[in-house]
Write a structure and sequence with these properties.
With about 550 residues, the protein is of the alpha+beta class.
Length: about 550
């Protein structure tokens, strides 16, 4: 059955915006458990009601589900970021924020009811055992992994396991038309939050961070060190579409760019207690040009970094107004394997501004604000951004910044047309990737002779492949002016092919050719260079 795709830009992006905006708190309650959980009439009332339903109600009722509904309803009365995590979701949530899991190390599609390997993780267990892109995994031990009705969750459960345990895979290799068995020892597989890094120019490095997990700072430092080895004296930090994560990780990253003693942020809880976080002398990219990219889907931890640099007059924030999340959560266990992430404080940027947007009109309205920004023209014109004079703050060097509703960038870059954003969305949502997988599956050997450098410099998507993509899209009810955006679509197809043949760095590097925000940074950097040269000449005279 053909999948149907519909790219209605405001609705689609608003839905993406609402998904996954979260932050990890670093605060601890001062009250003891005895004080926090003493018996009172409100708790007794809920407990008695559940007991009455359990023992007296005429029909059998799953009271666990009632409790879940009750907890969710209570949290909905608070703020949009206080959330309940059911027991069955805890492992998945923890895994995502930990930054790794134990498995066999493959990226795959469920393609024609069969697990089809997109690419084995570099140096992972499957790659070491010779698993190749395009291989079909038919069985794990004695469990069948193909056929209709097998969910991804079931597939993953069969491939994951304890570190060091072995799973015997039955594999079909299409190119050789053969089936074979291979034993793979499960290992720790990283979930990368540093999505890509490369040299944007001979002196400027680029790092894309997609969330702030436990492993993020370590990944970031490794990428930064490698870029400095390659000659990076400037940096572009891409936090677009980054929904946030752990507060402490954002503080560590901001510390890399700020001098010892500079305020990064401060938090305030309901009792008025203030905790400040200052930069240390550990940063190794201080006093160097830094550009930070943000957009309307950059939230929480991303905004902490942007706000800390902006308020300290460090670097340049480029893009569009960020999401606007200035609340800090702490995860607390509920005793049955479930947990709640409860908002315990607000955070403020160094000048004292809160960038939390209002949520007084409810959760639905809160996440709908992107649509409002779209229709108000804010995403197209900086003059349409509504800021209140009462929320005006001034940095040490006299720059005016605003609180409430996100970080307003120093340099505004408008959103592209609906069609341009649709091309980007086709890439972000995996539509291009799935088409490319089918294309490679037909004739993977066509690309075997190309090295990474040759592919970047010499490969071009031809008209035949472009026409195939149009047909593929039309069959799935995706309609747009394909020929008006032929160059962009061909570039994105090339990037998608590169990602499956090589890695995400090549994918990002190829896409950068048409990235409006990156081109703006190159323009700004050129102007800065001209200004530095002019000042040098004036000084020498």
């Amino acid at each position: 059955m053909k999948k149907k795709y519909s790219f209605i830009l405001p609705t689609m992006l608003a839905a993406a915006l609402a998904a996954g905006v979260f932050i990890g708190g670093k605060l601890h309650f001062n009250d003891s458990p005895e004080k926090l959980f003493t018996t009172n009439s409100k708790k007794d009332k809920l407990n008695r009601l559940i007991d009455y339903i359990d023992y007296e109600y005429v029909d059998d009722i799953n009271t666990d589900s009632i409790v879940d509904i009750t907890v969710n309803n209570i949290l909905k009365k608070l703020d949009p970021h206080s959330v309940y995590i059911p027991k069955q979701d805890m492992d998945r949530v923890a895994e995502n924020m930990k930054g790794d899991f134990v498995g066999i190390g493959i990226n795959f599609y469920s393609y024609l009811d069969t697990i089809s390997v997109i690419r084995a993780v570099k140096n992972g267990p499957s790659e070491q055992k010779g698993i190749l892109p395009g291989d079909r995994i038919l069985m794990a031990n004695n469990d069948t992994l193909f056929g209709k009705g097998i969910s991804n969750s079931k597939i993953v459960s069969k491939l994951k396991g304890k570190k060091g345990t072995t799973v015997e895979l039955t594999v079909y290799r299409k190119e050789e038309n053969k089936t074979f068995k291979v034993k793979v020892k499960r290992g720790v597989i990283p979930l990368k939050s540093v999505e890509a890094y490369y040299m944007l120019t001979p002196e400027m490095g680029y790092i894309k961070v997609n969330r702030f997990a436990e492993s993020t700072f370590k990944e970031f430092k490794k990428a930064l060190k490698e870029l400095q080895r390659l000659g990076a004296k400037k940096l572009t930090l891409d936090l677009r579409d980054n929904p946030g994560g752990y507060l402490g990780v954002a503080e560590q990253m901001a510390d890399e760019f700020l001098e010892d003693g500079k305020l990064i942020l401060f938090t305030k809880n309901k009792k008025g207690k203030i905790e400040e976080t200052h930069a240390t002398d550990k940063g190794n990219f201080e006093d160097k040009p830094i550009y930070v990219l943000i957009n309307e889907r950059s939230a929480s931890a991303s905004e902490i970094i942007a706000g800390a640099l902006q308020d300290n007059d460090v670097g340049t924030i480029v893009g569009r107004r960020s999401f606007g999340k200035g609340l800090v959560q702490r995860e607390m266990e509920l005793g049955d394997g479930s947990a709640v992430r409860l908002t315990v404080s607000r955070y403020y940027t160094p000048t004292g501004r809160s960038i939390q947007k209002t949520y007084k009109n409810g959760h639905k309205d809160y996440y709908k604000e992107f649509t409002n920004r779209y229709h108000s023209g804010e995403l197209v014109s900086v003059d349409s951004i509504k800021v209140a004079d009462s929320l005006k703050f001034t940095t040490p060097k006299g720059k005016v910044v605003y609180g409430g509703g996100g970080i307003v960038p120093d340099v505004f870059v408008p959103i592209g047309s609906n069609e341009q954003e649709a091309v980007e969305s086709m890439d972000n949502l995996g539509f291009l990737s799935f088409f490319v997988f089918e294309h490679l599956d037909e004739d993977r050997q066509r690309y075997n002779h190309l090295s990474k450098t040759e592919f970047i410099n010499d490969f071009r998507v031809d008209d035949i492949l472009f026409e195939k993509f149009i047909q593929y899209a039309l069959e799935r009810n995706l309609k747009m002016n394909f020929y008006d955006f032929e160059d962009s679509i061909k570039l994105y197809l090339k990037a998608a092919i590169a990602e499956q043949l090589f890695d995400s760095n090549v994918h990002a590097l190829i896409k950068s050719e048409e990235d409006v925000m990156l081109n703006k940074i190159l323009e700004l950097d050129g102007l800065m260079l001209e200004q530095d040269e002019k000042e040098l000449i004036e000084t020498s005279n």
